[in-house]
Task: structure prediction
Amino acid sequence: MNYDIVIIGGNPAGGAAASAAKMLHNDKSVLVIRKEQQSLIPCGIPYTFGTLNCVEDNIKSIEPAKKMGIDFLIDEVTEIDSDNKCLTLKESSKVYYEKLIVATGSNPFIPPIEGNNLDGVITIRKDLEYVKSIHPTLKEGKDIVVVGAGFIGVEMSDELIKLGGNVTLIEAMDSILPLAFDKDLIAPASEKLIKHGIDIRTNTMVDKILGENGIVSGVKLKSGEVIKADRVILAIGYKPNVCLAKDCGLKIGIYGGIVTDEYLRTNKDDIYAVGDCVEHRDFFTRKQSKLMLASTGASEARIAGMNLYDLRVIRQTKGSIAIFSTSLGDISIGAAGLTEKQANTEGFNIIVGQNIGVDHHPALLPSTSKQVVKLIFSKVSGVILGAQIIGGHSTGEMINILGLAIQKNMTASELAVMQYGTQPMLTAGPGNYPIVLAAMSAVQRMCN
Result:
């Protein structure tokens, strides 16, 4: 088989790359090769355990892509021959490409903890059949320990507590979601999880996982305390899936991802890489980053797909901003860019602006939520470095606005005079828009 453009992997990054490639190169044939006939929406996996009715409710359809003219082949690539531009497949004949995009995603990181191979120890892989297979196991669990309070660990804990068992969430650092939020802002989210019934242990590390007859029975902490457990979820993060990339000679970075340039080009001619398998770089420091977000992968995948044959769309965002949001019942949280702690660690001289208000006006309207907006700016230039929000359901789109402000290097004074629309059921009031007031508080500090 011969195709102009071939994508290995049908995850969010692979799908976004295929769509962008077809939209801007409509005369080219596009093929996506992936292992599964049906695939899940990765960010929706935790919600299949509580909020959704079943795993199948979280399947992403490929029909819109097929209508665009994108072809799909359900198979596994076993070898990339970059010299002959040829892919060897497990079941089918060879596929020849003109341009290749590697979107092989990531696999769960399994820490070297004693007992990590016991029956009842679970990781969160992103393939449909695996998630279906662990559903009965987790739903039967009465005492579940989740190791790692990143976004997967937090969301899994909040969903599993709905099943009626006991859930303990363990985090080595001093707060939940430590890489995205400062401790002072995330405290209400921790309180919400505790109110839901989750036992949160921070500044705590697992020494080993205990078992009887090969089955999990508990978790021993470094302090010596033993927590009863019949299920343990390892949610400590993911590592890039780069087996194919290594074998064909693609350059690998310090964190195990494929090294690319600004346009996602690898060190091999006509091979690009996107998504979790890539070594990302931080927007501000340009340091290599362990960041893995579907939204970031999809954004960079569009850059690759649009620029396969020539640089049609110039990339102006020179790194990953790490925009993240989630919902814990009636509290939603969002973050973008650097936290205050990260900015200080990197040596930035900063000013912080903050506003506390509500997300509707008047405040007595139904579903009104308290809303806190925290903005981090460079003290000298006034350029925004980071943003964090905790509030109601408008949080998700507000953090996207602030993500764009970060990408465009907006200043505190520009945000303080930004024009915006308000509506009683949708936003804070005209004189109390939280982004503006948080920016104004920073401007006040800069001027004093």
